[in-house]
Amino acid sequence: MKALLLCSVLAASAMGARQDATYDLVWHPRSGDVMTFKIQLAIDSTPEKYIFTATTKNKVVKVKPNGDYDIETTTTDQKVKHGTHEDPGDDDTKPTTDTYNSKGEKIASSEDNDPAEEGNPATDALDSVTDGLKPQAPVKIGEKWTALIEPSAKLKREAGKVEYTLVGIDKQGAYQVLKIAYNYHQTEKDTPVTVDGFIMLSQQDFSIVRVEANIKGGKFSPDPDFPAGDATFSLIRD
Question: Does the pTM of the predicted model rise above 0.70?
Answer without folding.
Answer: yes
